[in-house]
Specification:
The complex is a heterodimer of chains A (about 550) and B (about 400). With about 550 residues, chain A is mainly alpha-helical. Chain A is about 45% helix and about 5% strand. In chain A, the strands form five sheets. In chain A, strands 3-4-11 form a three-stranded antiparallel beta sheet. Chain A has a two-stranded antiparallel sheet with strand order 1-2. Chain A has a two-stranded antiparallel sheet with strand order 5-6. Chain A starts with a helix and ends in a 27-residue tail after the last strand. In chain B, strand 11 and strand 12 form a beta hairpin. Chain B has an eight-stranded antiparallel β-barrel with strand order 2-3-4-6-7-9-10-12. Chain B contains twelve helices and twelve strands. Helices cover about 25% and strands about 25% of the residues of chain B. Classes of the chains: A mainly alpha (about 550), B alpha+beta (about 400). At the A-B interface, helix 15 and strand 6 of A face helix 1, helix 2, strand 5 and strand 12 of B.
Chain lengths: ~550, ~400
């Protein structure tokens, strides 16, 4: 056990529940709902049949995660218009003539006149779900009054509700997850998130959506502030099938799967690429992850070596494997000895981290460093000459390894390429789409390389090296916490992060156990000094620990 | 480590490896892998074959047409429209009546192609050239006709092989819609048939099992199958390699024979085959290839594709019904042919499988060009095959013609 680990254990002693070390806590955040969070919330509040037609403002990736970007962005003028249009449309669908009696918990005294009692019941119920906390009386009254005013103009009670409901859906407290802070009675002088902010953190972390009624009730009654009550809720949420949505959302963010939206490949060079391939490749990896981590309670590290995955006909022709089901997905296992194993050899990785017309050991090496190991790689200088690398018909440099070797003779480039190329070359038998090839321009492809001193022969060996790399574990823990909290850990949170890593190892690198550990930890809800409600990491909070950030990424 | 082409290891050693892989896996995974391993575990006809398996899907399957310059010295075949202006027809007693019916569009004339034997028309202009694609099916030569055949003239193949039998080429090669050069009709029938394949209406699969060496193998098992799943195409409308296809559960369209590979060329033993056939949306004719004594000569290409010829004897009724059974007078005019003349020509040119009672040949030699891309074949389970096979048509080859109906009725 290293010194750091001993120090963590020492810190843990006497620091509260489960040997949890002291933590400064982080800032309370104001986080704009990501597009997925928005869509999931609307579906859960109003029903899955509500159509959300249109895109909302693009999410912003900061320090490697959209979840962190959400703490660092706002809404533009154009974005506000989009939210407004969506809100009106959603309200209209929800209170459509065929739906209104089902949507409103009471019948108005008269359909053509205001009914403040019925409107009050409606907004009290729906407002609590939309704003993720009960509406205070003044707010409730203002929406009831607005509904009555509109009803007087239109002569329709439900039209009045519709107008106010649309207004509720553009409330900042809905579009942003505003974390509120209260004194921590168990630690005088310290502050923590209030119960509703806790509920939101839990729900968006574990289910990628707004808190359900049970969770809000637990927050409202104070049950969520007790350890036993918190445990009941967390265990309920972890046992729910909805955990899959939460895990998918996290990995989609971590693996930068939003890039699939813009993924293009040269039709001349990769004629088999299509949107179906792109969508299936993304889905394949997410299925592999949730099957392994949730259904099988597998070791996170095994994601880099597992031969189990899922297959569609469309993917089968890229992987060149038989797929029995003409439609949909089926489980598939690459046989022992196959050249594919783990996420690195899946199309989602090989295609996403390549150029439109060729593979790229550099992009792949960089992705492994930055996404999977949380290590920063500097951007290339603006005046770099890529001519040798891009000329894949040069008879003197038949393979990418040869071209990159020539490129590295430029000392300006050599430094960075040295930390990317030896890793990425391990995947070089997968072309820019991910199809297997043994040769390039008639020359055999050498896939040997090394990852921080660990030599490997091929993609399977690279996956094994990554499996055994402690940095991969640290990176995941770091990313899960940053995803959950919306900020890069502060120096005062570092011991606690170490404790999480230790626990992750002790729990067999089980992601659900890691999520449970974080969710039950007081440190997760602790708010650091000087970081009040809405204080953003980069704006006015304490400086984050640079070693825990992913910077310089785009 | 070699590339993963659509082949499945079938050697005992590699089977052990797959079994190890399967052990403890989900049942569904087992099903997938077993489905891709036709050579084992399912009690199929491929039991006991060692070596690897390569699968293919046909991206092109139509007559191999040589189009020699001297094929049609008298010009192209005369269309139905012109028959009625032809002195031969005009002078015959029944002609005016039929002609009048056609002119009025009366119902009876629509049946010309369904009941071609009920009409008598001038003979079809047939190909007179000496070159055609195909194989020497009967083993005879120009000097020494093979026994048990009907009189016919042999061709020489474009690459100089003598003794080629392809009498159906004689029947088709002077019809405008079967030829490439006519302005309005060029390649019409070819495009009908292949667009049906491209549109997913008909899919044909081939599987070679027991390849111990891609270039040479003394005994391989070869299957030709239909599939209900559409042929997958790329943006250029060429077959997408490495897709998976379920073999039809209808065992009527399962055809298995043996062959060998010499210098990368597969040749097979003769076998009577039946395969699903669709002539295209224009004709909406779902029927069946019924080719007797069929054999392959297919080159296995280094990129995993295959191309070559399937030659054999088309049952004359099948050949007629698949090609012309769904025609009607408008198409006879448009395509440049006459159903009664074609029907008669095919019977007259038939050169194989003589009827023991009449001595008339019941099948006509032909050759199809094949272009295939690699694919994975998913075989049905044995119990599925049995249930569907019993639901197959009694005799699809005979349907669509009067003679076919008579044959079905046992007349």
């Amino acid at each position: 056990m290293g010194f750091a680990a001993l120090a963590i254990l020492a810190l843990s002693a006497g620091c509260g529940r489960s040997g949890e070390p002291a933590s400064s806590g982080g800032p309370a955040e104001i986080r704009r709902l990501t597009e997925d969070e928005y869509r999931h919330s609307i579906a859960d509040i109003f029903g899955a049949d509500i159509k959300i037609i249109g895109r909302i403002e693009p999410d912003v990736r900061v320090a490697g995660l959209l979840a962190v970007g959400a703490s660092n962005t706002t809404i533009t003028r154009a974005g506000a218009e989009t939210y407004d249009v969506l809100a009106r449309d959603i309200a209209a669908q929800f209170l459509d003539k065929a739906q209104q009696e089902k949507s409103v918990p009471c019948l108005p005294a008269a359909a053509d006149r205001p009914d403040d009692v019925c409107a009050g019941k409606f907004f009290a119920k729906i407002g609590r779900l939309i704003l993720r906390r009960p509406m205070d009386q003044a707010t409730l009254d203002s929406f009831v009054k607005a509904a009555a005013d509109r009803t007087r103009i239109t002569g329709n009670f439900y039209s009045g509700l519709e107008g106010s409901l649309a207004g509720l859906l553009v409330e900042p407290e809905f579009l942003f997850r505003v974390e509120n802070v209260e004194p921590d009675p168990t630690h005088p002088g310290q502050r923590r998130l209030d119960g509703f902010s806790k509920a939101s953190r839990l729900s968006f972390l574990l289910w990628d959506t707004t808190p359900d009624n049970a969770l809000l009730t637990a927050a409202q009654t104070g049950v969520l502030d007790t350890q036993a009550g918190l445990e009941r809720q967390v265990d309920r949420m972890l046992a729910s099938p909805r955990l899959e949505a939460g895990v998918r959302a996290f990995f989609a963010d971590m693996l930068e799967f939003d890039s699939f939206d813009g993924l293009e490949k040269s039709k001349d060079i990769y004629p088999r690429f299509s949107r179906t391939i792109a969508e299936d490749a993304r889905e394949q990896t997410l299925r592999t992850i949730t099957d392994h981590l949730i259904d099988r309670r597998g070791d996170y590290r095994d994601l880099f070596t597992t031969r189990r995955t899922f297959m569609t006909r469309a993917l089968g022709k890229i992987y060149r494997v038989p797929v029995a089901s003409a439609q949909g997905w089926e489980p598939f296992a690459f046989p022992d000895g196959d050249f594919r194993a783990g996420l690195l050899s899946q199309i989602s990785f090989t295609a996403l981290h390549a150029h439109p017309a060729r593979s790229s050991p550099t992009l792949r090496g960089r992705a492994i460093r930055e996404i999977l190991l949380c290590q920063r790689v500097p951007d290339p200088p603006a005046n770099v000459n890529f001519s040798v690398v891009e000329d894949n018909k040069n008879p003197n440099y038949k393979t990418m390894r040869e071209r990159l070797t020539a490129h590295r003779t430029n000392p300006t480039c050599a430094g960075c390429h040295k930390i990317m190329d030896p890793i990425g070359l391990g995947l070089e038998r997968f072309d820019g789409l991910g199809q297997y090839r043994a040769e390039e321009n008639g020359a055999p492809i050498d896939t040997s390389g090394e990852l921080d001193g660990i030599a490997f022969k091929d993609a399977v060996g690279l996956g094994k090296a990554l499996h055994d790399d402690p940095a991969a574990v640290s990176c995941l823990v770091n990313d899960v916490y940053r995803y959950a909290s919306g900020h890069t850990p502060l120096p005062g949170e570092k011991p606690w992060m170490g404790w999480l890593e230790q626990g992750f190892a002790a729990d067999g690198y089980s992601l659900p156990e890691l999520l449970r550990r974080i969710s039950l930890s007081a440190a997760f809800y602790r708010v650091s000094d000087g970081a009040g409600p809405g204080a953003s990491t980069q704006a006015n909070g304490p400086a984050p620990d640079p070693s825990l950030a992913k910077e310089g990424r785009s | 480590m070699e590339d993963r082409t659509p082949r499945v290891a079938g050697s005992p050693a590699s089977r052990q490896s797959w079994r190890r892989t399967l052990r403890g896996r989900a049942v569904a995974v087992s099903v997938i892998i077993l489905a891709a391993m036709p050579c084992q575990s399912r009690g199929s006809t491929q039991d006991g074959v060692t070596g690897t398996t390569r699968g293919f899907v046909f991206e092109y399957f139509w007559y191999a047409m040589a189009y020699g310059a001297d094929d049609c010295p008298d010009g192209l075949a005369v269309s139905m429209e012109k028959y009625y202006k032809h002195p031969y027809t005009a002078g015959r007693p029944g002609a005016p009546k039929v002609n009048a019916l056609v002119a009025k569009g009366e119902k009876g004339t629509e049946e010309r192609c369904k009941y071609p034997a009920a009409f008598e028309e001038p003979p079809l202009r047939t190909a007179q050239g000496r070159v055609a694609f195909g194989l020497n099916l009967d083993g005879g030569s120009a000097d020494k006709p093979a026994p048990n055949t009907c009189r016919h003239t042999k061709f020489t193949s474009p690459d100089g092989q003598p003794g080629v039998d392809n009498q159906l080429y004689r029947a088709l090669a002077c019809i405008a819609a079967y030829r490439p050069e006519q302005h309005f009709q060029s390649n019409t029938i070819r495009d009908f048939v292949n667009s049906a394949r491209q549109d997913g209406a008909v899919t044909t699969l081939m599987e070679i099992t027991g390849l111990t060496d891609d270039r040479n193998a003394s005994d391989v098992q070869v299957g030709l199958y239909s599939s209900a799943e559409p042929t997958q195409l790329d943006s250029e409308r060429r077959g997408e390699p490495y897709d998976s296809y379920a073999v039809t559960k209808n065992t009527r369209w399962h055809n298995v024979t043996h062959g060998k590979v010499v210098d990368g060329v597969l040749t097979t033993d003769p076998i009577d085959i039946r395969l699903d056939h669709y002539q295209g949306e224009g004709l909406k004719a779902h029927s069946e290839y019924y080719i007797r004594g069929a054999r392959l000569r297919v080159k296995l290409l280094p990129d995993g594709k295959a191309e070559g010829i399937l030659a054999g004897y088309s049952d004359v009724e099948s050949a007629y019904s698949t090609e012309f059974g769904q025609w009607y007078p408008t198409l006879e005019i448009g395509f440049g042919g006459s159903c009664p003349a074609l029907y008669a020509a095919i019977h007259n040119l038939a050169d194989g499988y003589p009827d023991p009672a009449t001595g008339r040949c019941t099948a006509i030699s032909t050759a199809y060009k094949i272009e295939a891309v690699p694919a994975f074949l998913i075989h049905p389970k044995a119990d599925d095959k049995a249930s569907i096979a019993s639901a197959g048509p009694e005799n699809g080859a005979a349907s669509g013609t009067l003679a076919g109906w008579f044959k079905k009725l046992g007349w």
